[in-house]
Amino acid sequence: YRNNALEDKFTSNRNIGVNIRNTATLTPWLDLELGTYLQYDEGKEQTFSTLSPGYEYMPYDGLVNTNGTHFTSTGKSRLSNNTMSIIDQYGLYNMDITPLDETGMNLAGNKAFLNRSVGKLNIRFAPWLNYQASFQYETGNERSDLLYDKNSFYVRNKVNSLAGYTAERGLFYLLPYGNIFNRNENHNNAYTFRQQLNFDKTSGKHNITAIAGTETRNNKLELHNQTQYNYDPDVLSFDLLNEQDLANGAGLFFNGTFSGSDVGFDKELINRFVSIYSNAGYAYDDKYLLTGSLRWDRSNLWGTNARYQRKPMWSVGLGWNVFREGFFIPGFVSFLKLRGSYGVVGNIAKDAAPYMTASYSPNYQLGGMQGVIASRPNPLLSWERTFTGNIGMDITMYNNRITAAVDYYRKNGKDLLANTMGVPTEGFGYSTYQINNGEMTNHGIETTISADIISSKKWKWNLTTLFAYNKNKVTYVNIEAPFYILQLDYPLAYPRVGNPYNAIYSYKWAGLSKDGLPQVYDEKNTASTIIPTTLEAIQYSGTTVPVYSGSFSSNLTYKGITFAFLLTYEGGHKIRNTDLPMLNNSYNNNMFTYMTQFGAVNKRITERWRKPGDETKTNVPKALFGEDPDFNSDVFTMYANSSINVLNAGNISLRNISLAYDFSPGFISKALMRSARIQFNVENLFMITADKSAKYLLGGFVPPNYVFGLYLGL
Question: Does residue 424 or residue 541 have the better pLDDT?
């Protein structure tokens, strides 16, 4: 049982789960295992956030007035004079927002039920040969009911956006004013059938092990969404809509939009997979090991063409148990094994297809159905392939008190899906599409060390550390960003050869000008206050994926009491700073120009340039306003995309700390239970970052979770 009281006042959830399993030996050669898991979830969700109230606010703005009443952001304080004139003239619904009142409105209720049942059969034909079959069936039902209160800003704004006036009709509302009720239901059912033959035979110094089997999986997801307007929760009534008028929207004041999905929609997703696999191993004198595997998969993803389906995956491996050799003299090292492997795996992306795909929806203006091309035909599409080589070592020392594993790997990706530019004469414009157009390498090292510092009858203390290092590089891709801003905004769509795939690109920072304006270097390596518009001016500034990462965990047990923690770290990567100490700007439709935006801004704006000479002391630009002769809407964009705002994302986090008690066997047996455990956890307790400015961006200020659990095995 779990009960979560979350940080939002009206958000909570709780669930209960029951796991039942029974194993029976029916005959000396036949075992049967049956099990089922049941889980029920129930909760409610607050959909309005005071952090995103629908209006601009400053950090010092409050939610409660000095007299104790709730603060209201009036429509007049936010909307243009023209908009307010229309609202007042035609008596439309007011556009005030009272955040503390809104939090208790528009609450969603969620319920879910999950059942997973499994049956396993084990038949022993001989001591060295057995057959296993298992069937698992899983079903899940989720339902969310969201009632938008008619007094909420959401409803008032929705109704106003679809109000209008014509000479023939006068004032009209295309949506009725009242509660809006949305119901969302998910039904999921899946089954997996697996059968496997196991062979394990030893003859003298020779041992052969092998498995061969098949697996069939089917997963079906159904989603039903329905929205009803002017809904009465007491008598369960609602109004019908004129969907054709809503779609045409003639004579509307505010150009509101309405589509079929605003009434409801259904989705269905079916995935089927069939796999045949085998694995074999040979050992001579338990010293020299040889392994091999072969797997073949098919699915209903994209038809039955053999080009996309019949791509086997395989691997071979070698191992050497050095500790079994006669020359190996056990000392502080009691176990030593060397191993290596090489193989290939394949992948087909679900979002790419060799055929043209389209989506369909009703056309309320003309009637009937309309189709929109979602992706162009792609007849050259084939499997992505990854060739992986690995060498490793396993070692045990000091009478099994210390164990360690070290692995070095190298992965070469071939025929990887990457973008290419469309040819306009093909009829699909310049839009990009995916083909097997990329190659990439990954190589690195992974280590694990575990040590039993104390191991006695009452005390046990284990320390475990993991370390991983990976270097990624794009080695081939046949595409280049056609416009400089695309390289900055969509680096994954336009990777550069020689750099990591998950890269950040930026302008090289050149400091502030004598007037306090940000400067970057252009393609000629000249400092400029005007945004460069060439690809040559954009440089690689780091990868967003950690180059190295690891963890350190401790588990201390005294009798039935266990104290444990998990510390993680990662580094070598970057993050783009979006919390800038500079005022942004946006286009103002009333003024027909760009205007400075006022809102919450990073506190480092107090370090901004104020007078000539400050450019030698700070990298924070001066505050630019619309009336300033130096004002330019591109200044903020250039500063945001400069290398000065690419931060070190290295961090150390205390992910989990827990205290648990396992009840004694005597108490458990008297209570007719198999196990009983009580546990208290604190998750994400703190984070330390290499760059203070990155802590907020990495979620370092999110409050920790406190979890209390009682686990009973019956």
Answer: 541
Longest dimension (CA), the chain: 102
Residues forming beta bridges with residue 70, ordered by sequence position: 64
Closest to 142 measured CA to CA, from 46, 42, 48, 264: 42
Helix H, strand E, coil C: the string for 389-436 is EEEEEEEEECCCCEEEEEEEEEEEEEEEEEEEECCHHHCCCCCEEEEE
Average confidence score pLDDT of the chain: 90
Q: What 3-state DSSP class applies to 20? A: strand
Residue 343 is predicted with a pLDDT of: 96
pTM listed for this prediction: 0.83
292: number of Cβ within 10 Å: 16
- CA distance linking residue 17 with residue 711, whole number of Å: 10
- Nearest Cα residue to 440 out of 467, 465, 411: 411
Residue in the block written with tokens 């298992």: 134
Helix (H) or strand (E) holding 561, with range, is strand 561-571
Per-residue pLDDT reduced to its tens digit, 467-501: 999 999 999 998 888 889 999 999 998 999 999 99
DSSP string for 243-282: HHHHHH-TTBSS-----GGGTEEEEEEEEEEEEEEEEEEE
Looking at residue 680, its pLDDT comes to 93
DSSP code at position 481: -
Q: Rounded to the nearest 5 degrees, what angle is found at the Cα of 601, between the Cα atoms of 597 and 604?
A: 135
